[in-house]
Amino acid sequence: MARLTIDRVSKTFGNYRALDAVSMEVRDGEFLAVLGPSGCGKTTLLRQIAGFDQIDDGEIRIGDTVVSDARRHVPPEHRRVGIVFQSYALWPHMSVFDNVAYGLKVAGVKDPERTRRVKEALALVGLEAFAERRPGLLSGGQRQRVALARCLVTEPSLVLLDEPLANLDVHLRAAMEDEFARFHERTATTMIYITHDQAEAMALADRIAVMDRGRLLQIATPSDLFRQPANETVARFIGEGMVLPAEVGAADSEGRCHGRIYGLEVSLRASPLQKAGHAKVCLRARDLAIAGPGQTGLSAHIVRTVYQGGFFRLEASLVRAPDVTVHLAVPEPFHHGPGDVVDIVVNDGWVLPATTES
Amino acid sequence: MSGSAAKAMRGGDLTLLWGLVVLVAVLSILPLARLVLEGIAPGGALSSGVIGAVLSDPTTWTAVRNSLVTTFGGTVLAVVIGSIVACFVALTDMRARNAFVFCFVLPLMIAPQVTALAWLQVTGPSSALLKTLGLAPPLGTRNPLYSAEGIILLLGIQYAPLVFLTLRAGLRALPKELIEAGLAAGAGKLTVLRTIILPLMTPPLVAGIALCFVSSLGNFGIPAFLGIPANYLVLPTLIYQRLSGLGPSALSEVAVLSTLIGVIAMAGIVVQDLMLRRRDFRITTTSTAARPFELRGWRLPSEILLWALVLVILVVPLAGLVATSLVPSYGVPLTAASATLENYAYVMFDHAASRRAFANSFGLSAAAAVVIVVVSVPLAYFLVWRRSRMLRLLNLAAELPYALPGVVLAIAAILIFLKPLPVFGVSLYNTIWIIFFCYVARFLVLGLRPVASGYHQLDRTLEEAAQVAGAGLLRRLVTIILPLVAPAATAGALLVFLTAFNELTVSALLWSSGNETLGVVVFSFEQGGDSTYAAALAVLTVIVTLALMLATLLFARKLPQGVLPWRD
């Protein structure tokens, strides 16, 4: 168990900057999700932590040991990290037992202890009965568990999970999510979980690091990430946020301020340091509602309504800015359709900090 | 884990890599460099005397002309047969494709000298087969195969499978959308074949032609059996005659001749490169292979014609060979009364040299196969998974001894090993080890290619998983990678074994008493007029070859496509 420090790490493939001065600190025992669209550099980051490539610049420390910098490079076999691969990478020519025992064998752990630890690891994932099977005969979820047992049996200082649920069907994913969460609780291992699925990241992680085009955009708890995105990209990427322009007043010490969105007066959340002026505001679907009697809102043309069981997802373009589309959930019964004009009230919103996003 | 330990580990990987680099350099670059050096400085002194003497000798130029005539002729014939058959196999709905491919590719796996011997048994006045059928020409008639045309015919048959294999691989990679787009645009099937398929097949066709050219140029067995009796010498047979007539004193001279043949082969490869560089043949889409041509009413006639081809190029000569091997003496017709197994008994039990040759060929081939696989598994690991410019050059170096004619390597090996080795003080010349060295150098790439394609099929995370589990490179190679590439490695080992087992070109120049190979003994039986013994021994080698080829079909499912040439 150890903390992981990533300090301004850069990695270039040819002309392509896969990692651009990425820094983050992962606490001992923390479950960190690295979230981003494909090609954002999250898998590259994992491969640098594991040591499969040599970094161009920066430093990676596991505990107090520098494992990578521009000159030094500890090879993967000496880093004591565990990895669960997306493809599971179970060795097809070995039984489940031998797959799990491999790392112990390599480390020179002798037999009574080795068998005991393998059995423990298999018991932890509920696969004692499958020890003699070949991986080819297991289901997807079972393979996933073997991969997990194999990675944990050597008690690595750090466990890296590369989209471990991507190859499972939806039903199994929920079950495995639970399993990972319980697992992390019981072992208290530092885990770094690579995924492109934000629901998965939100459900599992203590904190989420959002990456895009090789850069780290924000690292925060799931709730902070949702409520207080650091910039427009994160705001749009997480929870389908809508970003609208606004005029805002200076925030009070509680972090509240007044604002005006397309002429509508609204009360918003902001950093206590927020100054008055132009700003961008992140709105969530749950911040919006159809105006009740006597309420004023933004007039909008309905573009589309989609019934989603008990409520409609409504998409509408603003009358004052037809290229701006907002979406919200409207409870049944709702009798308007495309083309109708409705008034939409804004109950809450987050003023994006003015830090520029280059 | 401290930084210095990390460096030591990476040092371990580097040691293995550099070991392989040195090994490949010793096997491929050293011999060729030594050969060129001998041409420039014969016997160690800088001189142009030998070059001048060789190049002004009219025999040299006759041999060059004969080499070019037979090589071009054989290549043209091979291209015609090979490409027609490839189109049928890859593009039409013919039946029994697997059996056909096996039979059609078989001549490639049979030693050229056995092919030559077999054909001689069907055409001459003493042919047991023709005598039995009552078709033999009168005694004293010259065997028509003792001629340039005979050599061309057999080279064409021997190497048609090479063109077939490269073209079939190309046709397999051809996306079916390209064909369907042509058909949708209103073109007829033959128009599509002419305007779309064949132009796109230029690269594999040119590659096949180049392969065929180099193989025909370097072939020793066929011109040795058909040309030497007619005093029709090509470069490899000229080198053989000079060396066996004069011994090592002719070394400088044959070194020049070998360089000459090497230059012609390189010219062929360069021309291939130039032809492909002029135009862009890259295929931009990928999808499953198409078999667009339904033969309908033409299916049965086509199949009959194709199997008739197999009958002519495979069944008839082998029947002739078997017939000769069963008669008590050359020229006797084969009947129920005359048939005998005495020839087999003689070569297997009585004749000391052929008994030794069995042991030598088995031992050499098996040892070469094992060594090559042991080298190929780590070598392919670096070539496939750790690509770099230096490794691409290493791959090229590993290809060289196989790409160049066998005589080139053989002469180079004599030059290296004639004098005692510097440190050890032993001479490998006139021992079995010089043949072994050449086998490993020449056939390395035959084992390397299947292993490399095995790596291409492997998910690299399997290795990375072992790496993060703490396993060093050697342990990963042995416990994870070797079991996973084992089927491909076995196929590679068998290809090496079969090729070495049937080999004559190298051992004809390098053998010494006690160190004969099967090819050498068949050759000397035939040269001594003992065609019946030669035939019996040849039949035995064909049986071994065939048995091993069939054995590979048992695990063919586990192999990447294209690793076993004889499987569709």
The dominant shape of chain B is: globular
Structural class of chain A: alpha+beta
Main sheet properties of chain A: 6 strands, mixed
DSSP strand content of chain B: under 5%
Query: What helical percentage do the residues of chain A reach?
Result: 10-25%
Under CATH, the topology of the largest domain in chain B can be stated as: MetI-like fold
Figure out the total of helices of chain B.
24
CATH level 4 superfamily of the largest domain in chain B = MetI-like
Rg estimate of chain B, integer Å? 25 Å
Report the C-alpha radius of gyration of chain A, rounded. Answer: 24 Å
Oligomer state of the chains in this structure: heterodimer
Order of helices and strands of chain A: EEEHEEEHHHEHEHEEHHEEEEEEEEEE
| Neighbour order of strands in the largest sheet of chain A | 6-7-8-3-9-10
Structural features, described:
The complex is a heterodimer of chains A (358) and B (568). Chain A is an alpha+beta fold. Chain A has 8 helices and 20 strands. A 6-stranded mixed sheet of chain A has the order 6-7-8-3-9-10, sandwiched between helices. In chain A, strands 13-12-11-14-20 form a 5-stranded antiparallel sheet. A 5-stranded antiparallel sheet of chain A has the order 15-19-16-17-18, with no helix packed on it. In chain A, strand 9 (207-212) and strand 10 form a beta hairpin. In chain A, helix 2 (96-106) crosses helix 3 (111-124), helix 2 runs parallel beside helix 4 and helix 3 (111-124) packs across helix 4. Chain B has 568 residues and is mainly α. Chain B has 2 domains: 15-31 and 347-568, MetI-like fold; 48-340, MetI-like (MetI-like fold), CATH 1.10.3720. Helices cover 74% and strands 0% of the residues of chain B. Chain B has helices at residues 3-40, 49-56, 58-91, 97-109, 112-123, 128-133, 148-173, 176-184, 189-200, 202-218, 221-226, 235-246, 251-277, 299-326, 342-350, 352-385, 389-403, 406-417, 432-457, 461-468, 473-501, 505-510, 518-527, 531-552. In chain B, helix 1 (3-40) packs across helix 13 and helix 23 (518-527) packs antiparallel against helix 24 (531-552). The N and C termini of chain B lie far apart (52 Å). Chains A and B meet through strand 5, strand 6 and helix 2 of A and helix 1, helix 20 and helix 21 of B.
